[in-house]
Design goal:
The chain has about 200 residues and is α/β, with parallel strands linked by helices. About 40% of the residues lie in helices and about 10% in strands. It has a four-stranded parallel sheet. It is globular. The two termini are about 30 Å apart.
């Protein structure tokens, strides 16, 4: 039997600060590194050999997968794909979630975080947190870089990548280290979850 293993990255520095992170390239917090190693230990206990590994282009997912690999003594390299990145949180990027609940109300923040097709306001392209101003995204075509995204938008980039590059490998064991919303998009597809 083959396995598809989906791992949401360990706690990041901005998760710790309760900030909307999105496409900002923030590394793992100390606890996040421990969480990644624990994931590797759990897989090692299950005696699952990893045949193919994928991560987003973001350092928190990359380092999560590296720590899982190190824990499992896996030497192979892995594929990094921007299409597996976290959802872009638009103008909410960098802001504190608790402060936004006070400003916008809990219901509005929940709607932005958990709805299917509602996007936050776009992030200004002059903002240093906009992906066009972040070095790791310099090789992505500008027309592919979002200013904001809904879960639906995230789904529209994650699933075509999955179908083209990962689906045909599922006769073996595949691990994907990604993000809350890119994993949600994959789960929606895999388990045929409705839009609500």
């Amino acid at each position: 039997m083959s396995h598809l293993i989906l791992i949401r990255h360990g706690q990041s520095e901005w998760n710790l600060e309760k900030r909307f992170t999105g496409w900002v390239d923030v590394d793992l917090a100390a606890n996040g590194k421990l969480e990644a190693c624990k994931s590797g230990e759990l897989l090692k206990e299950k005696n699952i050999k990893i045949d193919h590994s994928f991560s987003s282009l973001q350092i928190r997912a990359i380092n999560t997968l590296k720590l899982v690999h190190n824990t499992m003594r896996i030497k192979e390299t892995f594929t990094k794909a921007w299409q597996l990145n976290e959802r872009h949180y638009g103008a909410l990027t960098g802001l504190n979630k608790d402060e936004m609940k006070k400003t916008l109300g809990e219901d509005k923040v929940l709607e932005f975080r958990r709805s299917w097709d509602i996007r936050p306001e776009p992030l200004n392209k002059n903002n240093p947190y906009h992906p066009i101003n972040i070095e790791i995204y310099k090789n992505i075509p500008k027309d592919k870089i979002p200013d904001t995204e809904s879960l639906k938008d995230t789904y529209k980039r994650v699933i075509p990548y999955f179908e083209k590059n990962i689906l045909d490998k599922l006769n073996k064991n595949v691990i994907i280290a990604a993000h809350g919303n890119s994993v949600r998009a994959l789960c929606k597809y895999l388990f045929n979850i409705d839009n609500k």
